[in-house]
Amino acid sequence: MHSRPMTVLRASALLLLFTACASTPSAPSTPPQLQEQFVLAKGVRVRRLAPGVWMHITEAGGDWAGVTANGLLVEDGDASILVDTGWTPEHSKALLTWARDTLHHPVRAALVTHFHVDRTGGIPTLDAEGIPVHGREDTALRAGKQGNPVPQQRLGDAQDFGPLSVFFPGAGHSPDNIVVMHRASGVLYGGCFIKDASAKGLGNLEDADVSAWPGSIQREREHFPNPRIIVPGHEQPGGTKLLDHTEALLKKASH
């Protein structure tokens, strides 16, 4: 005779529990500065390496379909600096939009580490938005001769650039390649001058100087002796073993 009142009580308790759960405010989302990775658009994503330092990864189409290239997006005060621009203007557009609207550190300047299109391809977007793009004089000359977008501002061979230190170690993957250190985090961006740990060869050697490359690596080691993370131009970051691996590939290529 007590079954019906008990059933009603249970139903009321469940209803109250459901209502309480439904009305509980959701936890605030994690700020972008603390999240590890974002997909920004097709073929464009960013990955957090250290506070204020993001690696961007863009995927090529056309003749280089499926090949990914790395770069950096580095926070600098209330703005940020883009290091290499992705393969295309669309890639750099996605990066600029994310930096402005999600990260809230709009890109104020960019630099490119050598003249190939995986570094310079996004320059037209930056030019259109009035964002200065910096590169070495040799980089600008070679980009122009090859028909790639040209950086309009100049970099020295060893200079500070906001929170970054830029250094030209000598010829390697290309005659004009530079490396970039984020001093506060110890992140060294080697670009295509440094190979990733899975690389079986030296990659595109069309503009490389294989004989000069080992000496250039030694100068890079001396200039930036204690990197914590090294970001190659393609594939995964690593430690100083990436330098050892690149040197081993060079020795193999010279025999």
From TrEMBL:
Its cofactor is Zn(2+). Its main location: periplasm. The keyword Cytoplasm does not apply. It catalyses: a beta-lactam + H2O = a substituted beta-amino acid. Transmembrane segments: none annotated. It is found in: Periplasm. Residues 1-22 form the signal peptide. GO terms for biological process: antibiotic catabolic process. Residues 68-234 form the Metallo-beta-lactamase domain. PROSITE patterns: PROKAR_LIPOPROTEIN. The keyword Nucleus does not apply. Keywords: Antibiotic resistance, Hydrolase, Metal-binding, Periplasm, Signal, Zinc. It holds the Pfam family Lactamase_B. Its EC number is 3.5.2.6. It comes from the Bacteria. PANTHER family: ACYL-COENZYME A THIOESTERASE MBLAC2 (PTHR42951:SF4), METALLO-BETA-LACTAMASE DOMAIN-CONTAINING (PTHR42951). Belongs to the metallo-beta-lactamase superfamily. Class-B beta-lactamase family. Monomer. This is beta-lactamase. It comes from Corallococcus aberystwythensis. The lineage of its organism: Bacteria, Pseudomonadati, Myxococcota, Myxococcia, Myxococcales. The gene is bla.
